## 1
Amino acid sequence: MIDYISLEKYGKKISVLFVEDDENIVKEMGFLLGDIFDKVDIAIDGKDGLSKYNDYYKSNEEFYDLIITDIQMPNMNGIDLIKNIYKINPLQKVIVLSAYNEKDYLMELINVGISQFILKPIDYNTFLDVIFKISKEIYETKYKKDSKVSLFIKIDDELIWNKELKQLTYKEEILKLTKKELYLVELLLKYPEKTYSNEEIISYLWRDDFESQGDISNLKNIISRLRKKIPLLNIENIYGFGYRLTTKNYL
């Protein structure tokens, strides 16, 4: 459940550039983003977005905290916009809005490092969940740089991952997992919400197997077994690309 009081606190400190050419989506999302964030600028395409991005830096001597962009737009698409922004600021936080039929674009975005995707038509509960997590991350990075990094990730209320010990516990009891199940959880929780491609996951899980190599069938079997073993482990399939694991927060 989203902590709306905290989200309101984070939003007052975060600047957002929303890049979208669809007027109806701009109207809907503009109102929603305006309710969350105090500073929201809107660009009508990638070219306009890049111009506003540079102008904002010149005026404020800092970059936007968050970019939310569509992929298919006139003049400059979302991929070229992101590539240009990364040349200026490689650490820029970006959320991509994507239609189901943009698989080729999504793979290219994964390759350049984008981990946050929201599929169209937009499910607003999912959108708010992603916004809350990335806003919390931005806020704590920007305003609490001296805070101690947590060793624990809260996947669900009683399901906890210990990053140092590489242990998954439920109700304080250590869960017994196979080596590859542990590898999978470890990888997906390195950057929660990031979408890892099937190739990345297979390479990671079979990295120390010199006599055998994994494939997509092996991976699906491991994920299916893990889902049955731990139903609270929300491993989400991004069709045609890979998987990601959603969490509640850091402890």
Note: The chain has a mean pLDDT of 86.
## 2
Amino acid sequence: MTDDVHDSSSAEPGGADEMADARAIEREIHEAHERAARPEIPVDRQLEAILMIADEPQSLVSLGAAVGAPVPVVRQAIERLVADFDGVDGTIRRGFELREVGGGWRFYVRQDLDDVVEQFVEAERPSRLSQAALETLAVVAYKQPITRSQIASIRAVNVDGVVRTLVARGLIEESFTDAETGAINYVTSVLLLQQLGINSLDELPLISPLLDDGAGGFEQNEGIPDGRV
């Protein structure tokens, strides 16, 4: 008589497989309870928060990826936000607007409030530029047109606040928006030429003699379109 041999190790109560399955089920139940207890934030509010801190126009695709929603849903939410900020259907017309620029969306001050904002900036801005602002201004002057990310790559630091300061002081300005990336390109302004006492960017001094060996310096007028201000 032959005895049948059965491997019952995986079927034993409290075995490794059963314990792993139990833990997985417990995690799923816990996560489900957390999702149920956490209120769902409307897509409109999520987009509003993202656009509030965005320095560059954001495409519908990038916004959809950020909030985990399909493009049609994002487009409808953007339309609702535009109508809300514009005071449609009895809502309060805001001092800012959500505007589509270069294939992306970004907050802008309403044109009829430009004077108010300009007065505030004039009163708040310091009389002298910081070292960081001077360095950023030099990068723009020699490498324009240039985007924030390109400036940050050269200086190896975040330059968002410095760029805003230079724009507010009228030393640099937005030139155009890249159609593919939505990145804003900056150039120096006429005001900078006036403050430097020069007529053209061609009169800027060579930067290579100021470097250790000159090998990494900019060539004269490299990347500076003739007469661009």
Note: The beta strands are 96-101, 104-109, 146-147, 172-177, 184-188.
## 3
Amino acid sequence: MRLLIVEDERRLAVALAKGLTAEGFAVDVVHDGLEGLHRAGEGSYDLVLLDIMLPGMNGYRVCAALRAAGNDVPILMLTAKDGEYDEAEGLDTGADDYLTKPFSYVVLVARVKALLRRRASAGASPVVVVGDLRMDTGSRRVYAGEDEVVLTAKEFAVLEQFAVRAGDVVSKAQILEHVWDFAYDGDPNIVEVYVSALRRKLGARRIQTVRGAGYRLVAG
């Protein structure tokens, strides 16, 4: 899943990005409200972490503008302010949740995952089934038949891209966009490394190579 952090405190933004990347998310970071609005409106994000006190445009206005444009991405607002009025204002503009600084990183991750689960339960089932492969995106567990397969955070994220498009061809570019971040400038063949790891754990027959196009997840 891909997250956008809109936070002008650069050290905090970098720390959050590193921690959430370690949780298996692809994370983009911007430090300005206007840039955050543009990126959230143009990008395919699963959740936005939005500070309130931002240069260019404050978080309240960014949130209100996204909702006015019909963008329903979950928004978790972050602020150094506190008090019922500030929380009410944030929620009135369309935010889904609110967290006051300083906050525990563990609490932040729990709030992020709760919002993502809520969105999943409101739409498609969090359990994706492809043949005898079951992937629970809520609990982040994978089963092949009756056996649980233990995956790293990045392996899970790559498999999720295949599972939600089971039977369709998924390109390297699509995987890089959703599993890594827009600033990734490393070797695109990193995708092949993770595909090879998934084949070792799940069985080579499940992930087919479509020459010149990408990969396809099929029933084993």
Note: Helices lie at 10-22, 33-42, 59-68, 84-92, 105-122, 153-163, 172-179, 190-202.
## 4
Amino acid sequence: MTLAHGAGAGMDHAFMATLAAGLAEVGIATLRFNFPFTEQKKMRPDTPAVAHQTIEAAIDKALELYPSFPLLISGKSFGGRMSSQYLALHQRKDVKGIIFYGFPLHPAGKPSTDRAEHLKDVKVPMLFLQGTKDTLATWDLIEAVCKPLKKASLVKLEGADHSFKAGRKVDTMPLLIEATKNWIEKIIK
């Protein structure tokens, strides 16, 4: 599974590294990568065209390294949205599904569903892992976006924000890993 990072942190961020390690423990190999803006230490994320080229390169590399494995793609926030935009534009039969670790539906404080318009053109199964306190995807809107998408599954992480923090005593990482594993087992036969 390719694993694209968000706009605020690269592939070596603690969330990304912990997620990849946890997925590996349950038999899911990940290929993490940085977008060019991260490599160049720029604050502003790449344009969609550059991000899409990067995602395509990661997909091609994963297929080259593990040609017999079923391939999924995933991303945290910006990385997930850019991955789904890429899939909406490029119908790839070699990608079996996409996982969103916090889909950034709208800017904080500006509820909207405009960023989800392309999802109707994604033809593979989609898993949305979303916190109920995510300021970049109010629960009622992400639920409304997912409902008409026939291939979408939405998992609610009660009390979690966009970083999947849900209070000092709640570790959401095992929930993310378990939900990912269970969903992959359902779609990969």
Note: The longest strand covers residues 95-101.
